[in-house]
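Researcher: We're teaching a course module on how sequence relates to structure. For the next exercise, students receive a sequence and then see the predicted structure as tokens, so they can try to spot secondary structure elements on their own. Here is the exercise chain.
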Amino acid sequence: MKPLVIAVDGPAGSGKSSVCRGTARTLGWRYLDTGAMYRAMTWAVLNAGIDPDDAAKVAEFCEVPAITSGVDPARSIIEVDGVDVSAAIREERVTSAVSAVSAVPKVRDLLVELQRTQAREALQLGTGIVVEGRDITTVVLPDAPVKIFLTARPEIRALRRAREDAGSADASSAEVNATQAALERRDHLDSTRAASPLKQTHEAYELDTSDLTLEEVIAEVISRAKAASE
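Model: And here is the predicted structure for the students to work with:
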């Protein structure tokens, strides 16, 4: 199969990371988690003592940190100024602030260019790349030959994220309910922001992962990539 770009969007908890990482591993391609890049910028903002809701200060600061994203699907690493923040960006303080930082146009302009550079480099090196995020099919890589919009029922997304946060297959109903409320808040913020909102382009294939296994979803994405490469 010839190298190409698979662009995947979707809300939190829809399975993007697992699907995209698994697809890239299966194909031997690169993998880029753009959400991790926004989390890394958010971590840098918080680490600098800047209020994430102060858009002017965030915009002024965002060119300072050097954000480097790994593209190995077997070992995803994200660094800020040479420091591995892969674990730190998953902390609640970052999760709570990432929508505000991501909404700053200058932040998006800066990171979108980095994301496009990663995609170009992959194709230049003769390998494909799977890119996940919330504006990949609409803004970052609108010409990608394969566009997928992953989704799942709200309660399924909440259960998945609650289990992920708990680090086990067990999550109480209270934890799931709290997680669903948090996801709904983030979905609203991400879909109503002025800069690159989360939305489904009519060109993207909607893939509901609610009742599918991870392997089934990956197989469907690869099938569409093979069809696009013919």
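Model: If you want an answer key for the exercise: The longest helix spans residues 105-124. The mean pLDDT is 91.
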